[in-house]
Amino acid sequence: MTFGADEIEFLRSHGIARLATVGEHDQPDVVPVAVEFDGAFFWVGGTGESVLRTRKVGNVRAGRRKVALVVDDLPSLDPFVARGIRVYGVADGPVERVGMVGPGPYLRITPRISWSWNMAGEPVGATWYETRRAVHDRSATGADG
Predict the structure, then answer these.
(1) Which residue of 33, 91, 110, 141 has the fewest CB atoms within a 10 Å radius of its CB?
(2) CA 109 – CA 135 distance, rounded (Å)
(3) Contact, 4 vs 118, CB < 8 A?
(4) 85-138 pLDDT, tens per residue?
């Protein structure tokens, strides 16, 4: 299973996400990041060598490759409308590439499991939005871990 067309459209229309990596002593570390989705992988990085000194890159380089990524928005408070996608994945890199914020080192995130809610942008009803869960095929991405 993979992302649906509505999920891909949502991911490609949002350039900001929150990325959680596992730090020293198993302490989660979450930061806002610029993110790109190319249809198979998520790319997080930036220009300049300073990216290589960030916690997120250090955590991945230290072998703590499991990550969580959330792309979401809140288009309306009245009525209340929330939508988003949460991804559990595996990061590797950094890889030199030209991306959304320019040339530089980027982490490549391979999605393993994702959950999405309210891609249609409907107001919340009597219960919270139903969630779509997808397990992403590792063989399709060629990634390990």
Answers:
(1) 141
(2) 15
(3) no
(4) 999 999 999 999 999 889 999 999 999 999 999 999 999 998 899 999 999 976
Tell the burial category of 107 from Cβ atoms under 10 Å away from its Cβ (0-12, 13-18, 19+): buried
Instruction: State the Cα–Cα distance between residues 123 and 46, nearest whole angstrom.
Output: 35
**Helix H or strand E encompassing 134:** strand 131-135
Residue type for position 53: R
59 Cβ neighbours under 8 A, 6+ residues apart: 21, 22, 23, 29
Where do the DSSP E strands lie in 10-125? Answer: 16-22, 28-37, 42-45, 66-77, 80-99, 102-117
Whose tokens are 């809610």? That residue is 117
Number of residues in the chain = 145
Write the pLDDT tens digit of every residue in 28-51. 999 999 999 999 999 998 777 788
**Pairwise CA distance, residues 103 & 77, whole Å:** 37
Q: How far is it, in rounded angstroms, from Cα 110 to Cα 11?
A: 14
